[in-house]
Amino acid sequence: MDNVTVSKFGGSITASADTIRRAAEIIRSDPSRKYVIASAPGTKPGETGITDMLFMSHSSRGNPAALSKMLGEIAGRFRRITDGLGLAFDIDAEISQLREGLDAGKGLDYIASRGEYITAKILAGLLGWPMADAEGLIFFREDGTLDEAKTFSTAGAVLRTLKHAVIPGFYGSMPDGSIKTFQRGDGDSSGAIVARAVNAGLFEKWSETAKIFVADPAVVPEAGLVRNITYDEAVEFNYLGLNIVSDRVIFMMRGVGIPVRVCSLEDQEGTLISGKLPEGTGRGVTACIAGRSKFNVLHIEKYGINKISGFGEKLFGIFARHGVACEHCLSGIYKMSVVIKSPLFHIRRGEILDEVRRVIEPDSMTVEGGLSLIAVVGGGMETLGRIFPALSGAGIKVRMIDQGSDSMNVILGVNDEDYADAVRALHSAMIRTEARS
User: Fold this and answer.
1) pTM for the whole thing?
2) How many distinct structural domains can be found in the chain?
């Protein structure tokens, strides 16, 4: 179904009548948009997100007055949306059903899912489309993992009978028929699942204002927008904190070759994520320059480190036992440097270092702070000839460098105080140069 687009609208868009109306206009503007996934209304100035309110409702079950107050606030939030849309919708009936679920002791997942359920019914009413409930489309196994075979088979068969449909995101059903939600922040998976089930030609993720820049616009105000990236580059972007679309979604779409477009109401062209760059993009080699600050580096020196069997397993096992993730590791014949960014490291620093001394018995060990990591994504070895002259010309010292074996990106470590100057120098040398060439 190459002519089918599956569109997922996030909570920032379903948060108000105005943004929902604009979403409906977008949906109607392209006949290929046949299946739409709706999120629960998110936060907006002066109003709490519906999912958080539903969690609070579940916590208030033992306090009738508090529960009634919270359900009244949820009803009020939805009523403002439906009134703003001029839509006849019986929100009282939905809240009554929600109250029945709470009184019957239905689980937290069921209660939390009602935000998407009600929102999908509202959007379906506005569009004049049917609502296909996710509990009959998306299925989990007993252990809580997605039952891909049953989901893709059933969802595909059901949706192909519908010319259009609105599907609530965020949840599916367990083998016993109970509702199970995805982890918070993983609502995009519902859209990717539907896209794969119907073999869509495109999966769209819509939010209100998100844009993807070639460099941090707070540092480089003139930075342009990224229009085309590959699946692998998108994963690199996520690591750098840009949070384009979850890695789970990227891997699911990459596996079947479905492109992903990340769009916003402010930038409807958005960024296209696909297996390879479209011909004629004229992007040059560098997709983006991005980074994060305030890393720590643990330097360990030990003679013969390269010949000690299981050295890395012992070292990283210590971090794992303390729940601390290691971002990067650089090693040599007698030295290993581990890059860390975790609040737990600061809390458990003394315990971790004591255990490293006891288990590893290093010849020396130091911890440095104030490191920023900057990645030049795209191009690999082709970019090195520009990176170092640019940073040297700006008087910036490179504290570390790491390049993946796939040559997808180059990650540089610089002092925190040099971060902004380094980004500006790299943008000038990498992005502007490419734009002129």
Assistant:
1) 0.84
2) 1
